[in-house]
Write a structure and sequence with these properties.
Strand content: 15-25%
Structural class: alpha+beta
Number of strands: 25
Radius of gyration: 23 Å
Length: 473
């Protein structure tokens, strides 16, 4: 990262005009593409200073090579398209992000526990929405503390930026959370609230986030992903122009090195599909490819991913709900994936020789990235062994899926929920349930799947009725 230039975009939220400014900046550096980072920032593959950097900084961006600064991550990208806490909406995120007047030196996450796209616990200060309107849990993961803890009170939405700054100023002086709480209170009297229930985050399978999908009744959202994480400037500029011409106001970077555009008017759907087609942009990658974290500009990691995905595809392996990361072994690394492929460092005495790399395979407890605990599945294995080991893990995941769900508030001990037949889209896994109907397609409750018209289409991916299969849940 010290050789790369990062452009911090608070929460990964850009207007088309703002992205055009960054594209212009990248072109002045002689670049033809840029990368997205796992903290919803933009990364340029070369380091160069010029007057354009100063212009960007004046326009609410921070262009830095100093790794002591960090971008703020938030789950605004999931608002209105994935499950959400009832009181939390896009405008709340925007207000909180706007209230940050300082550039944090710690990783801050501001997230909704009901969505599964943005990591909850990958920061040092993790603000997680509570059931109480405008109040947040605060999870602390500080390097000089032996364990992760929760702040003793809920934090008010409009205090998050001030609390973050006070925490950053005092956390290095505190030995535990009680002392930290007292130090912060000496700086800032916040509008806190008592914690009535501890935070429980139920496991949610990783969502599919690419392609054109319905958003409400009259709008769509689009997710775009490049296999090599190189987003070419000429296409991005034309795409920004399209957004401006069609009254599309926001472009959101995801933590998975991709981006999502929300609020696409119905009348713009066909022109956008034609534009993407003419530009040769492929959508609807399989989850075998989408659910990966790779280091930026790491050709070796990209080649390893392609090798593994090719083996998955040849063996018809399902990875629905799982996520993967390829990393270099580090004691301080914070993971937020189900399965980690960890490359071992070569011993100093062996660096003068050509040595084949070895890898460790780890998986999160119950395959839940929010569990904080990773278990070792294999150590010091060769690359050729990785696909087989990962296929074993994927089968183990499906075998245990739904078991030991002790945290589910809706299932009492020794109570087995009754199964029911529903119809599921075989392409995007959307479920049609007679008890609920399909609000997006204006189908009321009580209408059986068999009674739906022959031209019925999936409300998410618009697959035909014949694409649905009967399943028990």
């Amino acid at each position: 990262m010290s050789e790369l230039k990062r452009i911090f975009v608070k929460g990964g939220i850009l207007s088309p005009n703002e992205l055009k400014q960054i594209i212009h900046h990248a072109k002045t550096l002689g670049l033809d593409a840029l990368h997205f980072g796992s903290r919803q920032d933009i990364i340029l593959p070369e380091h160069s200073e010029n007057s354009e950097s100063e212009i960007l900084n004046k326009k609410n961006f921070n262009t830095v090579t100093d790794t002591s600064f960090q971008n703020i991550v938030c789950s605004y990208v999931s608002a209105d398209i994935f499950p959400s806490t009832t009181w939390l909406n896009g405008s709340t995120y925007l207000y909180i992000l706007e209230s940050f007047k300082h550039q944090p030196k710690v990783k801050i996450n501001i997230t909704d526990p009901e969505q599964g796209l943005t990591p909850l616990f990958s920061g040092e200060f993790n603000f997680i929405a509570s059931p109480h309107e405008d109040y947040w849990y605060l999870h602390l993961n500080l390097s000089h503390w032996k364990e992760q803890v929760y702040y003793p009170v809920l934090i008010y939405s409009w205090d998050i930026s001030k609390i973050s700054q006070a925490l950053e100023e005092t956390c290095s002086d505190a030995e535990d959370v009680e002392e930290l709480f007292l130090l912060v209170n000496d700086i800032f009297q916040a509008n806190n609230r008592t914690i009535e229930k501890e935070l429980i985050v139920p496991y949610k399978p990783f969502p599919y986030y690419e392609g054109m999908n319905k958003m409400g009744i009259k709008q769509y959202w689009l997710g775009l992903y490049w296999r090599n994480n190189k987003y070419y400037l000429n296409f991005l500029k034309d795409f920004c122009d399209f957004c401006l011409e069609n009254r599309i106001g926001k472009i959101c970077i995801t933590p998975w090195k991709s981006f999502i555009v929300k609020g696409i008017p119905t009348e713009s759907k066909l022109p956008l599909e034609k534009f993407l087609g003419k530009s040769g942009i492929n959508v609807r990658h399989s989850l075998l490819e989408l659910n990966w974290h790779l280091p930026v500009a790491d050709e070796e990691a990209l080649a390893l991913k392609k090798f593994i995905v090719m083996n998955f595809d040849q063996n018809d392996i399902s990875t629905y709900g799982l996520t993967f990361a390829i990393v270099t072994r580090s004691a301080k690394k914070i993971y937020f994936t189900s399965i980690v492929i960890e490359k071992n460092n070569v011993p100093d005495m062996m660096k003068q020789y050509t040595v084949r790399p070895t890898y460790n395979v780890l998986y999160s407890e119950k395959f839940d990235p929010n569990s904080h605990k990773y278990l070792i599945y294999a150590q010091d294995v060769d690359q050729i062994e990785l696909p087989g080991l990962l296929m074993e893990l994927s089968k183990l995941y499906f075998e245990q899926l739904g078991e030991n769900d002790d945290d589910s508030p809706n299932i009492r001990e020794n109570e087995v929920p009754a199964k029911k037949q529903v119809h599921q889209c075989s392409n995007c896994l959307t479920v049609y349930d007679t008890d609920y109907g399909d609000a997006l397609n204006e189908i009321p409750q009580g209408i059986t799947f068999e009674s739906l018209p022959d031209d019925y289409k999936c409300s998410v991916c618009e697959s035909e009725k014949k694409s649905f299969i009967s399943v028990a849940i």
